[in-house]
Specification:
- There is one protein chain.
- The protein is mainly β and 350 residues long.
- The protein has four domains: 35 residues, no CATH class; 106 residues, Immunoglobulins (Immunoglobulin-like, Sandwich); 101 residues, Immunoglobulin-like (Sandwich); 78 residues, no CATH class.
- Helix content is 0%, strand content 56%.
- The strands form eight sheets. It has a five-stranded mixed β-sheet with strand order 4-11-10-6-8, with no helix packed on it.
- β25 and β26 form a beta hairpin.
Length: 350
């Protein structure tokens, strides 16, 4: 291909003559073009270095500015990345567009980012085409790709003690540690169930060799064994990390008051009194006793009992407090239920 470099303004013509051994020699190719005066431009800077960037992440953008320094309108006819690693560089935004005309003295910027596709030295060139004789113009691009870090966790499972339904446990923590020179990025930390909550101070990224903390709490939504998982997604070389979570939800909890005994002995066949003040929840339910086995018939709302003193003998056992009574009542039909007393209302089944 023959380059076209006009030496003067206006229409320009030329001929390529090819002499060979055939009878029709010489062969001729006619050339035409138009020379335009006053077109000139600069691009600055002519090279950009992005330094170290972890594979799988994207750098902040750097700009190369194209300026029309001539005396006529400069038209951008195209631009692209070329060279050894063109796919490692991107144009997230640019105010230079193909077909755009730059008036005398005007400029536009190419905003370039580095997103290494592999580890090691990476390079490319941004080529800018326009209608001036000096086209194309080039910007050299370099950067170094770093391997993503690996992640280790201080625990891969957490077990919580029994917790009253709807209340929140004391927190437990997990330390996340990165290793390697790359940056941990694209961090997402979540739980798979609403029984467990997780907060963290990891932010959007964690430098290689640094740590952050994940704080976990247990708020059971129902009684019985509860289980869940913390999912930690990122660009880590060892992939997504998971932490198993477990704990039982309970309908009530009893704790002796400070200084009160933790136990009381009741002789068989006699009544006894244990002066233990407690905060508790009782679940109101009906059940049927068959062959000394208890079967739940139906279940109702939980009732808060702010202060209770527990009484007992071999059978049944009672909880008694001012204005409210909960007791195990066995009738001839084999049913048991809880009853309320004044001032809650007239004694009877809830």
């Amino acid at each position: 291909m023959s380059p076209y470099t006009p030496t003067a303004a206006g229409a320009r013509t030329g001929t390529i003559t090819i002499t060979d051994s055939v009878a029709s020699s010489p062969q001729k190719v006619t050339l035409t073009g138009n020379g335009v005066t006053g077109l000139a431009a600069t691009v600055s800077p002519t090279s950009l270095s992005f330094g170290n960037q972890t594979q799988g992440t994207t750098s902040a953008a750097q700009s190369a500015t194209l300026t029309n320094t001539g005396s006529g309108t400069l038209t951008i006819t195209g631009f692209s990345f070329a060279g050894t690693n063109p796919s490692d560089f991107t144009l997230p935004t640019t105010d230079c567009n193909q077909g755009q005309g730059l008036a005398v003295g005007a400029s536009c910027a190419f905003n370039i980012a580095f997103a290494p596709q592999a580890v090691g030295n990476r390079s490319a060139t941004l080529q800018i085409l326009d209608n001036s004789a000096q086209s194309p113009r080039s910007v050299t691009l370099t950067g170094v790709g770093l391997a993503p870090p690996t992640v280790t966790l201080s625990a891969i499972s957490l077990s919580f003690a029994a917790q009253v339904v709807g209340s929140t446990s004391q927190p437990q923590t997990i330390t996340l540690t990165t290793s390697g020179s790359g940056t941990l990025a694209s961090i997402s930390i979540s739980t798979t169930t609403s029984d467990f909550g997780a907060s963290n101070n990891c932010g959007n990224s964690v430098a290689g060799g640094a740590t952050c903390t994940i704080t976990v709490t247990f708020t059971p939504t129902a009684a019985g064994g509860r289980a869940g998982t913390i999912v930690i997604a990122s660009n880590a070389a060892n992939g997504t990390q998971m932490v198993s979570l477990s704990g039982p939800g309970t309908d009530f909890s009893i704790s002796p008051a400070a200084g009160s005994p933790n136990s009381a002995t009741i002789t068989a066949g006699q009544s006894g009194y244990s002066p233990r003040t407690a905060q508790c929840w009782l679940k109101i339910y009906n059940s049927r006793i068959v062959d000394n086995s208890e079967t739940i018939v139906d279940s109702h709302a939980r009732v808060a009992i702010p202060s209770a003193k527990w009484w007992g003998d071999p059978a049944p056992q009672f909880a008694s407090m001012a204005g409210f009574k909960c007791g195990l009542e066995r009738s001839l039909t084999g049913l048991k239920d809880f009853e309320s007393a004044a001032p809650i209302g007239t004694a009877g089944k809830l």
